[in-house]
Write a structure and sequence with these properties.
Layout: H1 2-6, H2 10-19, H3 23-30, H4 34-48, H5 78-81, H6 85-89, E1 96-100, E2 103-120, E3 123-130, E4 139-142, E5 146-153, E6 162-163, E7 187-193, E8 198-203, H7 209-214, E9 218-224, E10 233-242, E11 252-255, H8 261-264, E12 267-269, E13 275-281, E14 288-293, E15 298-302, E16 311-313, E17 315-319, E18 323-328, E19 334-339, H9 343-347, E20 351-356
Parallel strand pairs: 2-5, 4-9, 10-13, 12-20
Antiparallel strand pairs: 1-2, 2-3, 5-7, 6-8, 8-9, 10-11, 13-18, 14-17, 14-19, 15-16, 15-18, 19-20
Helix pairs in contact: 3-4
This protein binds copper (II) ion (CU).
Length: 357
């Protein structure tokens, strides 16, 4: 059964689960990962009794376990991963600041390392990480500063760091140009000016590219404009996914890696505060991802490179590598859902709640 299980894709599973009751015993034997297995079987059981056992969104217990929104069984202990999705939201790495000829130089240190992480309760993933976390640290500089990134490859595979931005080819972090691949044990310092201002990203560009990204080598790179954005409660949301059985489709979807993390522990914000979300799509193996908020609308700044919003909406779509800044205020207290408007992703982990107090 093990061998058969490895060949069954998540799409086939869902296709079967959507159709017939007979799919349940099949699922029980076939799903290769206990956590996903439990989620899917439970999702189907709930779909059959109509409304997820009678619990209602925003009314059920804080943990939402077994809720109508497709909660997982159990939780991922942040101690196990060494990083916490709740802390990743508001964690910014501003590097070490020095001055050269009167100019600010911001130096960041990034180490690539192999590390097993837990992406849903009971679902382990052999990740490749920057600084031991997925996504990697959120690097933050100001427009016009000099950025220096000291990269050490402590992983067992060659890697690079490719930054989005405007810079010379030798610092572009691709194989075959400049330093090219950085071998295990090797190091290199990438250097460039911080511009244009906006919401950018960085990721490994070694080949096979999809694998190097999907394994976890990516992060957010924010360049603040010279004249600051208004004070806000800022949150980084990296939309990602995990191919846990190597079939080049994802079995788990999330924001900041851990499926259902913000359903388990809703994001606390204050009513009336300006909330600024840095939303980045790094998903591999799916063409599109999306972000939708319930009971509210937001201003959207694609790539964060203009000061005027391009759209006032409640849903945006991003292809891989696209990103944008979302700004909104919650006028009412309560629990408000956010999720991928691709329902399939939402049911496999990409959903959460704001708890407005
Ligand atoms: Cu790599």
């Amino acid at each position: 059964m093990k061998f058969a299980a490895q060949k069954i894709s998540r799409r086939k599973l869902l296709g079967g689960a959507a159709g017939a009751t007979a799919a349940i015993p099949f699922l029980h034997e076939a799903v290769p990962h206990q956590g996903v297995h439990d989620q899917l079987a439970q999702a189907q059981a709930q779909a059959q009794d109509g409304h997820g056992g009678g619990e209602q969104p925003g009314v059920s217990s804080a943990s939402h376990r077994g809720s109508a929104h497709r909660g997982t069984v159990g939780r991922v202990d942040p101690e196990v991963n060494g990083f916490d999705p709740t802390e990743i939201l508001r964690n910014f790495d501003r590097g070490t600041v020095t001055r050269e000829n009167g100019r600010v130089v911001r130096t960041f240190e990034i180490v690539a390392e192999d590390k097993e992480i837990e992406v849903a309760p009971g679902v382990k993933f052999a990740a490749w990480t920057y600084n031991g976390r997925v996504p990697g640290p959120t690097l933050r500089a100001r427009e016009g500063e000099r950025v220096r990134v000291s990269f050490v490859n402590a992983s067992s595979h060659p890697h690079t760091i490719h930054f989005h931005g405007i810079h010379t080819d030798v610092h572009d972090g691709i194989p075959g140009v400049g330093p090219g691949n950085i071998s295990p044990g090797g190091s290199y310092t990438y250097e460039f000016d911080a511009f244009p201002f906006g919401l950018h990203l960085y990721h490994c560009h070694s080949t096979p590219l999809a694998e190097h990204i999907a394994k976890g080598l990516y992060g957010t790179f924010i360049i603040d404009p010279k004249d600051e954005r208004p004070e806000a409660d800022e949150l980084v949301m990296v939309m990602n996914g995990f191919d846990t059985n190597f079939d080049r489709t994802n079995e788990v979807y999330a924001v900041n890696t851990v499926a259902f993390a913000y359903e388990e522990k809703p994001i606390r914000v204050k009513r009336g505060d300006l909330i600024r979300m840095y939303v980045v799509n790094v998903l591999e193996y799916d063409l599109l991802n999306s972000f939708h908020i319930h009971a509210n609308f937001f201003d959207y700044y694609p790539t964060g490179t203009r000061r005027e919003p391009a759209e006032f909406t409640d849903t945006i779509t991003q292809a891989q590598g696209q990103r944008g800044i979302v700004e909104l205020r919650f006028p009412f207290t309560g629990k408000y859902m956010f999720h991928a408007h691709v329902s399939e992703f939402a049911e496999l982990g990409w959903m959460g709640f704001f708890e407005v107090v």
